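Risk register update: the risk of archive-format incompatibility is retired. Evidence:
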Amino acid sequence: QVQLVESGGGLVQAGGSLRLSCAASGGTFSTYNMGWFRQTPGKEREFVAAIRWSGGVTYYADSVKGRFFISRDNAKNTVYLQMNSLKPEDTAVYYCAAAVTSSNYVSPASYDVWGRGTQVTVSS
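Archived output:
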């Protein structure tokens, strides 16, 4: 089964950018659909973006559409989340996740494997 490790989080001022990476190992990365979620204390995990195994189809939450961009490099076993025009409300722990099947991309329950998360903090 694939294992996932996120990186690239940090502290950034509002309006700035960050690129998160999620490196996969131990499985056939190119067969997984991948997603990014985020979570703040006391709240449920929230869908951010997803990309199909081939990379040809992407999905975004309305709150990040036009600012965040998901991509993947199957040769490098890595999925990325480019985050631009960051806002304080984007502050959260960001998780990447892998899904074996194509089902409901926005539901955390659809994903089989999760990384441990990386903190993103956006200051105003």
